[in-house]
Design brief:
The complex is a heterotetramer, with 2 copies of chain A (about 80 residues) and 2 copies of chain C (about 170 residues).
Chain A lengths: L1 E5 L2 H5 L6 E2 L4 H11 L1 H7 L5 E4 L2 E3 L10 E5 L6
Parallel strand pairs in A: 1-5
Antiparallel strand pairs in A: 1-2, 3-4, 3-5
Chain C lengths: L1 E7 L5 H9 L7 E8 L3 E7 L4 E7 L2 E6 L3 H16 L2 E9 L1 E3 L4 E9 L2 H18 L2 E7 L2 E4 L4 H12 L4
Parallel strand pairs in C: 1-6
Antiparallel strand pairs in C: 2-8, 3-4, 5-7, 5-9, 6-8, 9-10
The chains are: A alpha+beta (about 80), C alpha+beta (about 170).
Amino acid sequence: MINLLFFGRLGDFAKAVPSTLEASTPAEARELLAADFPDLGRELYEPQVLVSVNKMIVPWDQPLFEGSEVAFLPPVTGG
Amino acid sequence: MINLLFFGRLGDFAKAVPSTLEASTPAEARELLAADFPDLGRELYEPQVLVSVNKMIVPWDQPLFEGSEVAFLPPVTGG
Amino acid sequence: MTSRIRIQQQDFDLAEEYELLRQTDSAVGAVVTFSGLVRDFEVEADVGVEDVTCAKKSIDSLSLQHYPGMTEKLLEAIVEQANTRWNLIATTVIHRVGDLAPREQIVLVGVASQHRAEAFEAAQFLMDYLKTQATFWKSIRRDNQQQWIHSKASDKQAAERWSRSKDE
Amino acid sequence: MTSRIRIQQQDFDLAEEYELLRQTDSAVGAVVTFSGLVRDFEVEADVGVEDVTCAKKSIDSLSLQHYPGMTEKLLEAIVEQANTRWNLIATTVIHRVGDLAPREQIVLVGVASQHRAEAFEAAQFLMDYLKTQATFWKSIRRDNQQQWIHSKASDKQAAERWSRSKDE
């Protein structure tokens, strides 16, 4: 099981989404989420959305392990 | 008569210089000063030295009038 | 280099942070501070059929979310990059999170160095990178509706100029 | 634009000036301040027969002379130029004169604007022009001897970059 986090506008689309999932890469997690939650899926496939695993930005095919924290990050807007 | 002011390092060379003079341009004032005070003269002829009349930077041939305030300004070093 | 990084809900005191920066060392000749404040409006693009117009729309409040644990690491990396590029004596980065009203302080970046050029450049660099790399997300509230702010192309461009060359 | 220009012997309070800048208008989104401090040394060039070396020499105090009446006019002109180039909401320029000990504040430049780029650029512009155009002269005291500071080529170059083009 991996833990899921959604930030910024992605959080609005992820209100009904479970906080854990079985997936071996972020890409697979995104695919599974898009199948069940098409509105969220459209957002996650936006090219500007990045993914982090355990608080490091990673490529979408990064291998995941039990307990990995996977966060979906829209473009940042701080400052 | 015109009034003379010397700023920065020029002040060190102008301690014995009278505070007024008869001159029709800053160039003439400088010439008269250089004749009487050769050390000051060398400083005043440095190309970086500017002259102001009544607190405005002017060319050396600017006409002077009774009571004009002529200031000799070495490169500034504030801030 | 002395570096202070804080992410907090409460307000900060520029005077206090400035004193810490200037007192770090007797070699400090320049201190630059940048404070970002909540304006009472946001500029929004209205994309029409034939053209794009920009309108100022007033806001009731701003809200800042961040990714705890990740933001701190990213800010540390940004400060470390600035310190590699310039010869800095001390830096301060404070970013607030949570709900903020118009006119409140959002962010403070402060840099102490020997000379002014490096303090100015490093402060600008820190802000440009913070805006485009640190995991903060801003939303505005207006008429009881929350709306996420879009990232700005101008911020991306501002950050990109630092990767072109050091002296550009 | 609100502009405050002061030349004074007494110290200034950054916090007070910052509050004035940020409270000018609810459209203020960015405030940049630059503070110049007296360092406890001056870098001096020793011109030898074969090469030029630079040495840090400690100082006891700094003294600032200016041309009353002329300096104010020049600072006003510099601020006016900045305001023509950038869209500014408020500016503050304070320069101290007289004797200053190491670690004391010499100069403050503050700029409030809507966006950070213009505040950063205008503050840098004000400092670069103040350094090369305002009628201040600095001397240092060391072992009871007064010595006038030479103007720096780097300051002249810093000011010249603004005349090349607005966006460079």
